[in-house]
Amino acid sequence: MATAITTQTPLGPHPAIPISVGALDFTFANGDTALGNEFVITGRQLLLVFNNDVGAQTFTISSVPDAFGRKGDITDYSLDAGDYVAFWFGSVVGWRQTANKILLASSNDAIQYAVLNLD
């Protein structure tokens, strides 16, 4: 079983004022190279990936066949040291695994993930 990533919902668009310290913060979770990572998908989430290592590392997002049998993993996407990337799940088609999960794999535990709900 993959290590779960807790999704986070940012404040907005009209939060109560004043904004308290830390209220706009979000956190990254370390990648798990042994078990992989997963999160529950709703279809309106932004995946942020950060390479916290001193060298290049990779991550993979596993897909599933759509209604036409097409499959399109994002495989071994490379991030240089200190790089950030983002992927928006605007639809679950082709991505939602069993139990409504997205599956992630990383080449190193220094790959970190944050999942923001955009509902």
Description of the structure:
This protein has a domain at 1-9 and 37-66 and 73-111. 0% of the residues lie in helices and 39% in strands. It contains no helices and 9 strands. Strands 1-3-8-5-6 form a 5-stranded mixed β-sheet, with no helix packed on it. The chain is globular, with a radius of gyration of 15 Å. It starts with a strand and ends with a strand. The model has no long low-confidence stretch (mean pLDDT 96).
From the structure above, extract its key features.
119 residues, 5-stranded mixed beta sheet, 4-stranded antiparallel beta sheet
Short description:
The chain is mainly β and 119 residues long. The protein contains no helices and nine strands. The chain has a domain of 78 residues.
Categorize the overall geometry.
Answer: globular
Order of helices and strands: EEEEEEEEE
Largest sheet: 5 strands, mixed
- Extended strand count: 9
Average the pLDDT over all residues and give the rounded result: 96
Structural class of the secondary elements? mainly beta
Rg from alpha-carbon coordinates: 15 Å
Residues in helices, as a percent range:
under 10%
Strand content: 35-45%
List segments where confidence is low: pLDDT < 50 over at least 5 consecutive residues.
none
Please count the helical segments: 0
Order of strands across the biggest sheet?
A: 1-3-8-5-6
Gap between N and C termini, in Å?
A: 27 Å
